[in-house]
Design a protein that fits this description.
Elements (H helix, E strand, L loop, with lengths): L2 E6 L2 E5 L6 H5 L4 E8 L3 H11 L3 H8 L6 E4 L4 E11 L4 E11 L3 E6 L6 H10 L8 H34 L6 H22 L2 H8 L12 H64 L11 H24 L4
Parallel strand pairs: 3-7
Antiparallel strand pairs: 1-2, 1-3, 4-5, 5-6, 6-7
Family: Belongs to the CorA metal ion transporter (MIT) (TC 1.A.35) family.
Function: Mediates influx of magnesium ions.
Subcellular location: Cell membrane; Membrane
Length: 323
């Protein structure tokens, strides 16, 4: 189902009217219209494409999935692709929702590739900034980008919390190494995906703010600057988290190696201590005469040697922190 809105002189005049009436509203130069389509086909976009003069390549990208975040400029409009994201804190899995948008002087057409994109939140942001409606299409684009970038920022913040918990778990007394490895690899995979969605948004927002684009007026410029600041912070945060995940993984492997070395030292030390009585009793077990053979003092001599040598080895290993 298509959603529609029309603003006249910066005032919301009508919404949820049939998409076929767009051409009637566009005849008035004082109007700005918004059309939202969910999972449309090329045939669904044919009428809108003819009405707004959309480029054939942009229409193909709008119905194709897994486009990279970008802003393409054509003679009559611009074409935007971006992703809203959400991190599942329970599993560490990143879920993305692709959106395409056609931007003209007096119209914004949003194309949602799936129903996970919360267009209602975008509408609420428009309604909460009705003092900016006189800025035309730029006002609609600002609300859309503000929501998308906020999802990036929220996902980065949630991922930072997850990585901080992972970092604390590395130094825990009892560590589930298998679970920690699985969790760290899942977070790393999500972080790589998030980075692919966040980093290109710097160029997208920067291009929209350019004067020759004629989209952002003086009233909107501070708001777009704020969105751009959030994009930069999310990008820098993403880069730092990638380095942090790598460091945590290296630290985990290093600690595992250290724990293994400690275990090997203890096992080796106890093996050396046990080797003393084994060697002495083995010697006295020979079926040949030896000093103290058949005499009680021979037994006590061997026992004393075992106790003294074992105690000496234990004290030596203990001083060297091998036990």
């Amino acid at each position: 189902m298509a959603r529609t809105r029309v603003y006249r002189h910066g005032v919301l005049e009508a919404e949820n009217f049939p998409a076929a009436e767009l051409s009637d509203y566009l005849q008035d130069p004082a109007t700005v219209v918004w059309l939202d389509l969910a999972e449309p086909t090329a045939a669904d976009l044919a009428t809108i494409s003819e009405e707004l003069g959309l480029h054939r390549l942009a229409v193909e990208d709008a119905v194709s999935e897994h486009q990279r975040p970008k802003l393409d400029r054509y003679s009559s409009h611009s074409f935007l692709t971006a992703y809203a994201v959400r991190l599942d804190t329970g599993t560490g899995t990143l879920t993305e929702s692709e959106l395409a948008a056609f931007i003209t002087d007096r119209a914004l057409v949003t194309v949602r590739k799936d129903d996970r994109f919360d267009i209602e939140e975008v509408v609420r942001r428009w309604d909460g900034s009705d003092d900016l409606t006189k800025s035309g299409t730029g006002f609609l684009v600002y609300g859309l980008l503000d929501y998308i970038v906020d999802t990036h920022f929220d996902a980065v913040q949630a991922m930072d919390d997850q990585i901080e918990e992972l970092e604390d778990g590395v130094f825990a007394d009892h560590v589930d190494h298998t679970g920690m490895q699985r969790r760290s690899l899942r977070l790393r995979k999500s972080l790589v995906s998030l980075r692919r969605f966040v980093l290109p948004m710097r160029e997208v927002v920067n291009s929209l703010m350019r004067r020759d684009h004629h989209l952002v007026d003086e009233a909107l410029m501070p708001y777009f600057q704020d969105v751009y600041d959030h994009v930069l912070r999310a990008s820098e945060w993403t880069e730092s988290l990638r380095d942090l995940v790598t460091t945590i993984r290296e630290t985990q492997l290093s600690l595992q190696g250290n724990r293994l070395n400690m275990i090997m030292k203890k096992v080796t030390s106890w093996a050396a201590i046990i080797a003393v009585p084994t060697a002495i009793t083995g010697f006295y077990g020979q079926n040949v005469p030896y000093p103290g053979f058949g005499q009680p003092w021979g037994f006590w001599l061997s026992t004393a040697v075992i106790v003294v040598l074992s105690a000496a080895l234990y004290v030596m290993f203990r001083r060297r922190d091998w036990l």
